[in-house]
Amino acid sequence: MAIDLRSDTVTLPSPRMREAMARAEVGDDVFGEDPTINALEALVAERTGKDAALFVASGTMGNLSSLLAHAQRGQEVILGDESHIYHYEAGGASALGGLVFHPVATRDDGVMPAAAIAAALRPRADWLAPPGVICLENTHNRCSGAVMSPDDFAAIGELARANRLPVHLDGARLFNASVAMGLPLRAWTDHVTSVQVCLSKGLAAPVGSLVAGPRDFVARARRVRKMLGGGMRQAGVLAAAGLVALEEMVDRLAEDHANARWLASGLARLPGVVLDANRAVTNIVVFGLAAGLDSAAFVNALRQEGVLIIDLGRGRLRAVTHYGITADDCRAALAACERTLARMTPGPRLGTESANHVR
Ligand code: TLP
Predict the structure, then answer these.
(1) For the residues of 231-296, what is the DSSP string, one character each?
(2) Share of the chain above pLDDT 90, in %
(3) 114-153 burial, b for 16+ CB within 10 Å, e for fewer?
(4) Distance from the CA of 172 to the center of ligand 1, in angstroms?
(5) What is the pTM of this model?
(6) Are 281 and 180 in contact (CB under 8 A)?
(7) What counts of helices (H) and strands (E) characterise the chain?
C-alpha cells in the first residue's frame, strides 16, 4: 500500500465512526429535524463560543456560504495571497456571489499582518469597491501549516471592529492549531465573527465542515447553503462520524505533529532538499529542492517508490501527516526520498574532476 502523504483529506473513518454512522438517529435537516446534526451544531457552537453553527458538505461550501452571508455583490474580500480561498476554491465567491478578491501579501510564517490589511481597506468612494469581509486562515495550508498567534488575531479583530467589518476564519485545521499551542479554539475564535472548521481533514471524518457565528449570520449562511444545493436531509449519518471526530480524534493530532516534525528534520538533512525544519509545527511539511532538481520529476519518481506527495507549484512540495500515517511510514518515506534524490543528483564521476583533483 502506498504511503499517502498528499493530504490529511485522504484519512479513512475510524471503526468507531462507522459504528456511530450505522446507529445514528436521523431526520430531515432542512426542516431542522435531524437530532444528530442538531447535536453536532450545538457542540461546535459551544467549542467556538458562537451563538450557532451550521453543518455543511465541505470546507469550500463553508467558506463560500460564510462569505456570501457576510458581503454583498461588488464588495471586496480582503484575503491572503497564499490563502486556500484565493487559490483552491474555484473563485466561487466571485463567480457565484459577485465578490471581488483583494489579495494581501502573506509572510512566509503564514501571518497577514494587521498593518497590511489596514493598508488594503479602500476608503469609501463611488469609484472604489468597498471592503465587505476580511478572511484569515489558521493553520496556514500553503505556509507549512503555520499557526498564527491569538495576539495577531486580536490586532486584526480590533482593526475590523474599528472599520465595522466582519472577519471570517478559514479554520479548516484550527484543531491542529489548538493542539499545537495547547489553547482552546476560543483563543482564536473570540477575535473573529465567523469560523469554518473541517471534520474531514486530520479529524478523519468522511465528510463535513461546520460554520459558526452570530445567530443572524448563521441564518443567512443556512439560506445560502440551501441555494448551493447543500441542504442534505438525513445527513445525521455523516454528523454522527463528526461527533466521534470531535470526541476522540482531536488529541491524537499531536501524533501527526510529532511525525511531521520528525519527517521535516530528516528531510532538511538530505542533500538536495531546501527546508527550514523549524517551520513544521503542525502536520504539514512544505519543502523545495535545490536548483537544478526538477520538482515534478521528483514527485513522479517518489510515486514509483510508493510514496505520494503533492507539488504546490513554484517549486514547493507538500507532505502531510495524518491518522493513516505511522512513525514507521515516515521512516520509510524519508528513506524513499533519500534514494530518489540520490538517483537525481549526479555524484562525483571517477576519472574526471575528483580523480584529477587527487592527482
Ligand atoms: N484543502 C485540501 C485541498 O483543497 C488542497 C488539502 O489537501 O489541503 N481551507 C483549507 C485551509 C483547506 O486546506 C481546505 C482543503 C479547504 C479549506 C477546503 O476544504 P474541502 O476540501 O472540504 O472543500
Answers:
(1) --SSTHHHHHHHHHHHHHSSTTHHHHHHHHHHHHHHHHTSTTEE--GGG--SSEEEEEE-TT--HH
(2) 95
(3) bebbeebbeeeeeeeebbbbbbbbbbbbbbbbbbbbbebb
(4) 7
(5) 0.95
(6) yes
(7) 15, 13
Return the pLDDT at 359: 27
Among all chains, which residue has been given the C-alpha cell 495576539?
A: 151
Helix (H) or strand (E) holding 184: none
Q: Give per-residue pLDDT as tens, 14-39.
A: 999 999 999 999 999 999 999 999 99
Q: Are 117 and 104 in contact (CB under 8 A)?
A: yes
pLDDT tens-digit map of 297-323? 999 999 999 999 999 999 999 999 999
**Mean pLDDT, all residues of the chain:** 95
| Closest residue by Cα to residue 317 from 304, 307, 327 | 307
Query: What are 212's strand-pairing partners?
Result: 53, 195
Look at the block and give the residue holding cell 500553503.
142
Asked whether 80 lines ligand 1 (CB < 6 A), one says: no
Nine cell digits for residue 109: 510564517
Atom of ligand 1 nearest to the CA of 58: 22
Q: Which residues, 6 or more positions from 167, have their beta carbon under 8 angstroms from its beta carbon? A: 133, 134, 135, 136, 156, 157, 160, 191, 192, 193, 194
pLDDT of residue 347: 60
> Are the C-beta atoms of 329 and 3 separated by less than 8 Å?
yes
Distance 59 CA to ligand 1 centre (A): 6
The torsion angles phi and psi of 88, rounded to 5 degrees, stand at -125, 15
Q: 143 CB under 6 A from ligand 1?
A: no
Report in angstroms the alpha-carbon separations of 357 from 177, 206, 346. Answer: 52, 59, 18
Handedness of CA 106, 107, 112, 115 (dihedral sign): negative
Pocket test for ligand 1, best of 198, 256, 285, 320 (most atoms within 8 A of CB): 198
